[in-house]
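User: Quick sanity check before I run a bigger batch. Here is a single chain. Can you write out its predicted 3D structure?
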Amino acid sequence: MNIFSGRCDISVDGEKPWTDLGGRESIFQGPPTMAYIPRNRKWSIKLISETADMGICRVTARRDTKPALITPDMGRVIDTGKGVWHRQVAFAIGLDTDADRILAGECYTDPGTWASYPPHKHDTTALPKEAWYEEIYHFIVEPKQGFGYQRIYTAVGDPEPLDEVYVIEDRDSVAIPKGYHPVASAPGYRVGFFWILAGEEREYAAWSEDPKHSWLQTARPD
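Assistant: Done. Predicted structure follows.
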């Protein structure tokens, strides 16, 4: 569970709750607060602000683990990319959290820039280079009337080719079953997204770039 804005308490199995969580007014105001709640647990949320905005996702787990709370000071934010594909990525439910089959965080772009770029994919198990993951992006756009684009396309030779472009607006979600999946934000509008990876390996960055565009890694940012 990711708290986009507002404050709340969360309890698991009726035990003493995690209290006064969240506090952002926007995902662009700092790293997230996320809670990982394992399978076979009962949990509840109590709002302590007048309103709150949250994202909740579920992934089928293979084993029992412990609940985990990741607060903004516990997460990690990195700058990645360059030029018009520079963005910030916040890691919350990462490799240091014993969360079976799931990784989650946020990404923040500036107006008129790109994310998930150069395009990458993670639809083949070929460790250590690439791990198979499904993924969902849940988008938040500011100002809210803005928009962006996401393209999802498969590698050359894929037996079931896919090539789709989606207009993304505030609070849209896009499922990424396979393929490369770059995102572009329109000028004047910031596009951020809550990303959730689900797979067997839990190896972040085990993906492969589209070889047609990998030259951009050594290109000048302008």
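The first strand starts at residue 2 and ends at 5.

User: Great, the batch can go ahead then.
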